[in-house]
Specification:
By secondary structure, the protein is an all-alpha fold. Among the domains are: about 260 residues, no CATH class; about 120 residues, no CATH class; about 200 residues, no CATH class. β1 and β2 form a beta hairpin. α4 runs antiparallel to α12 and α33 packs across α34. The C terminus is likely disordered. One of its GO terms (biological process) is monoatomic ion transport.
């Protein structure tokens, strides 16, 4: 259970981030860092068991019918990445407390960083492939918001990173579904233990390829490497945490976790080694080309990740163990360097090494810490970076035949360039004459978070043998064998060790590149590739937008026919497809009743009236009549819930339509007889097709097996007798919650798009003409309380009788409409749509969380209330229904709030029959010049 408590602690950090920030500002980073350490301590309490060769587990059932659970599993591999996610995360939170300005939105940043850390912890501990994917994708979403947090200039890099990594998420989802299909389980431990089933499947190449693609996008491997340097527009703490220690390591973790089933496939080794080597070389070269310290570290990260991916591709026990070690050492020195670059930027006001020199005289402690991390990155003894690099040489040489030496030579070349840019960073910032003498070292509290991993890289390099148990267990968990060992050592086996001389060669070549830095720099500055990843992405992105623009062009038309083209064309295409596919067998229909034909006759009359009227209001009214007739038919067929919903929807539709029609002419524009005749013919033909299809496809169908199950089992399983409501809030509650979220997003979009104020001369105008408000005010005082009471009654009884949250919200919305009618636009409703939407989603989540006590999210908890002869069933579904009520009501209030802004009196409405004045074609002298037609920026509002 300690693993579950560790995850809960991180969730608490997410929830407390904003309250703590309101109380302590940027210093909230310290208590949040404390929560990170508490979570890490809980995980480390199981470390002795893991280091002894065991595992720690925990399970929390999520979807029992599919055997999907929040299965948590701590082994050597997950322990390594947990220490990275939480340990480095705690340091970054402490660093933020000094890096951020007092005016920054600390709560948002701390919340997103904590959520990201929670997702990383959940991902590395997941023993279920579904939850692993969910956490994997949460990291993508958090990364998007963290990269794009600073403004519009960050929107494009954030979008670029999101699109690329999200495509990898889709690939991982496909791989997860294929694994589920092949193995019949989502339990990751069972899947890996039964690797033979996966490898013998014809889907094995697809699964492995999709996993590789997901990891390549997440870990910025060629040709997707370009998004990572682009993402360095984010804050330095974000770059230090996401793009050095955690996010980019998510792809590494996925590759290592799934490597065992695919290591013996030639294509797995070939792709990973080839992609990794290309990435490590181009990343190193581009890093050497940079003058901006942060850009240098970004390309360095790309290079180091390529090194790790190539090691995973080698696939031997030694290579997989060293891959984990290098991921660990890289996180230490790169987190230090990113934090120190942030310190330099804050103190010196620049990250360009051409503007920095001699800082060691004024910032000695910063210089020492930078030297520790840079030498570890360069692979110099006795740092941990040296051990991971030299052990990597041993691993590359394990490739068969001459390939070991070829790959080893490429690795040496890459490491030599790494050595060169490490010293370029160190020398460029700290050596030479001091240009800025008024600087000084940052406060100890600012430097301390960077000092911890820097010193750790030195001490762990000196005493690397103490890491053998951890990385032995890591490789054993990766290859699923207790006979796998790494054998880490600072000293080489002998003076004749090939890896030792490869290290010597690396240093010699690196020193040569550094000594010739000026001609090398001039040559690299002339190196401009004709094609770059960013250009290819932008061209592809623009092409997709053009294609979507072409597809969506009809939808932007103001003509109704353009919007009807696709749905009506689809109906016609289906009708033509029926005879081509053999037709459909039609059985004898049941006998019609007289009342059926009565409703049909009235509906026909209403449709005819709709077609002949020229009044827009009249057309809306006739549409409402047709809707009420359909509701009446539902009542005749026993669908009381449907009838209630239909009637309230029709009333609200008419009310909202009237608000919209206020700005349109009272009558439709004249239409030629030819066009009316053509529209009539199309309407009749398509109406007959749709009617026949409805009759054939649904009118003859008996209750399916699933429908009969709901009829028989609803009361026992959900505690309700209203079948429709029980399906919505119990059996399909998660679907309903998703639809609630969509409604909330639609309402927010409505509020955002129509947020303009009414013109000043219209604010005081009411929605109806003067003199008409007396009746409305009187009716409002009587009807609003009655309708509100009916709405609450429908909500209360919805689980047992016709009603429920949706229809009760629509009824309550009628009360809002009536209360709103007599009021002017300058007196908006006291109901705040955003508050209602937030309340709806929060209440629904709370109801779902209560269901966890029953076993899974949204599971209903039922009970009863008995007082004498009075009996009332109770269920948590009522709480969920209350969330539906608030969300739907929030949407309606949002629509009313926006559509009632400014009424147009009768005298201001356009007359379609009126002819333009004689001077209409003349330019107006008081009209603004097109160049002056720029958006006005109001002080205090975002541009």
């Amino acid at each position: 259970m300690t693993l579950l408590f560790a995850l809960i602690t991180m969730i608490a950090a997410v929830l407390l981030a904003r309250p703590l920030s309101y109380r302590w500002g940027r210093n909230a980073g310290y208590p949040i860092a404390g929560l990170f350490l508490v979570s890490l301590a809980l995980v480390l309490s199981d470390a002795p068991k893991v280091l002894a060769g065991g595992t720690a587990t925990g399970e929390w059932m999520w979807i029992e019918s599919f055997d999907i659970a929040l299965r948590l599993h701590l082994d050597g591999l997950s322990l390594v990445f947990t220490v990275l996610a939480l340990g480095v995360g705690a340091l970054i939170m402490s660093y933020c407390a000094r890096y951020l300005s007092e005016e920054y939105d600390h709560g948002r940043l701390y919340m997103l960083l904590s959520l990201f850390a929670t997702a990383m912890l959940g991902m590395v501990l997941s023993a279920d492939i579904i939850t692993l994917f969910v956490f994997f994708e949460i990291t993508t979403l958090c990364s998007f918001f963290l990269i794009g947090a600073q403004g519009l200039h960050q929107a494009r890099p954030a979008t670029r990173a999101f699109v690329i990594t999200a495509s990898g998420g889709l690939a991982l989802l496909t791989a997860v579904l294929l694994l589920w299909h092949v193995t019949g389980t989502t339990n990751l431990t069972e899947i890996l233990d039964d690797a033979g089933t996966v490898t013998s499947s014809p889907y094995a190449p697809w699964i492995g390829g999709l996993i590789i693609y997901a990891a390549m996008t997440k870990s910025a491997q060629f040709p997707f490497h370009f998004w990572l340097p682009d993402a360095m527009v984010a804050l330095t703490p974000v770059s230090a945490y996401l793009h050095a220690a955690t996010l980019v390591k998510a792809g590494i973790y996925v590759l290592m976790r799934f490597s065992e089933p695919f290591t013996d496939f030639w294509w797995w080794t070939t792709v990973l080694v080839l992609v990794g080597l290309i990435t490590t070389v181009i990343g190193a070269v581009f890093a050497l080309q940079q003058h901006d310290l942060k850009a240098l570290l970004a390309y360095s990260t790309v290079s180091q990740l390529g090194w790790i991916v190539a090691l995973i591709g080698v696939g031997t026990h030694q290579a997989l163990g060293v891959a984990g070690l290098h991921a660990f050492s890289h996180a230490l020195f790169k987190a230090t360097l990113f934090m120190l670059v942030g310190v330099i930027d804050k103190e010196a006001g620049s990250r360009d090494i051409r503007e920095l020199s001699g800082l060691y005289r004024v910032m000695p402690f910063t210089a020492v810490l930078t030297a520790l991390a840079a030498m570890s990155m360069a692979g110099l003894p006795p740092f941990l970076g040296f051990v991971s690099k030299e052990e990597g040489y041993y691993a590359f040489l394990e490739l068969p035949g001459h390939w070991g030496w070829i790959v080893g030579a490429i690795a040496v070349a890459s490491a030599a360039v790494t050595f060169a840019y490490s010293f370029r960073l160190l020398w460029g910032a700290f050596a030479g004459p001091t240009q800025q003498r008024g600087l000084y070292d940052a406060a100890p509290s600012f430097l301390a978070p960077a000092a911890v991993p820097a010193v750790a890289g030195l001490l762990l390099g000196l005493f690397v043998a103490y890491l053998n148990p951890l990385f032995d267990r890591s490789v054993q968990a990766t290859v699923l064998s207790e006979d796998a060992y790494v054998g880490l050592s600072l000293l080489p086996e002998s003076i004749a060790s090939p890896a030792l001389w490869m290290s010597v060669t690396t240093v010699v070549l690196g020193l040569g590149l550094f000594a010739a830095r000026e001609p090398v720099d001039r040559g690299l500055q002339r190196l401009v590739l004709p094609v770059s990843g960013v250009k290819v992405y932008d061209a592809a992105y623009a092409a997709v937008l053009r294609f979507c623009n072409w597809i969506a062009r009809p939808a932007r038309s103001g003509a109704l026919a353009a919007h009807l083209l696709w749905p009506l064309g689809t109906v016609a295409a289906l009708a033509l497809a029926i005879p081509l596919t053999g037709g459909i067998e039609v059985t004898d229909p049941p006998a019609s009743r007289p009342e059926d034909w009565f409703v049909v006759g009235l509906t026909v009359l209403a449709v005819v009236g709709l077609c002949v009227t020229r009044s827009r209001i009249g057309a809306v009214a006739m549409m409402g009549v047709i809707g009420f007739l359909v509701a009446g038919w539902f009542i005749l067929l026993g669908g009381i819930d449907l009838a209630l919903t239909q009637m309230t929807v029709e009333i609200l539709t008419v009310a909202v339509a009237v608000l919209i029609l206020r700005r349109l002419p009272e009558t439709f524009s004249p239409v030629s007889m030819l066009r009316r005749s053509g529209a009539l013919a199309v309407a009749v033909v398509l109406g007959l097709i749709a009617g026949a299809a409805t009759w054939v496809l649904t009118g003859q169908r008996q209750a399916t097996e699933a429908a009969q199950w709901y009829i028989d089992e609803t009361e026992r399983a959900a505690g309700g007798t209203n079948l429709v409501n029980s399906i919505l809030v119990d059996f399909r509650g998660l679907d309903t919650f998703g639809e609630m979220t969509v409604l909330a997003v639609a309402a927010i979009g409505l509020l955002a798009l129509l947020r303009g104020e009414a013109p000043a001369d219209e604010k005081a105008r009411t929605m109806d003409l003067p003199g008409d408000k007396t009746v409305l005010n009187t009716a409002r005082k009587i009807l609003v309380p009655l309708i509100a009471a009916v709405a609450l009654w429908l909500l209360w009884r919805g689980h047992y009788e016709p009603g429920g949250g949706f229809v009760s919200a629509l009824v309550a919305a009628l009360a809002v409409v009536i209360a709103r009618l007599p009021r002017s636009a300058e007196h908006p409703s006291r109901l705040r749509p955003t508050a209602l939407l937030a309340a709806g989603l929060i209440v629904a989540i709370a109801a779902g969380t209560l269901g966890l006590l029953q076993g899974s999210f949204l599971s209903p908890i039922t009970g009863s209330l008995e007082i004498g002869a009075f009996y009332q069933g109770l269920t948590t579904s009522l709480i969920f229904d209350l969330g539906v009520f608030f969300t739907v009501l929030g949407l309606v209030v949002a629509a009313l709030d926006r559509f009632t802004r400014g009424a147009v009196p009768h005298s201001d409405r356009l007359d379609p029959a009126a002819t333009p004045p004689p001077d209409a074609a003349e330019p107006r002298t008081d009209q603004a010049h097109p160049a002056d037609n720029q958006p006005t920026v109001v002080e205090g509002e975002p541009r």
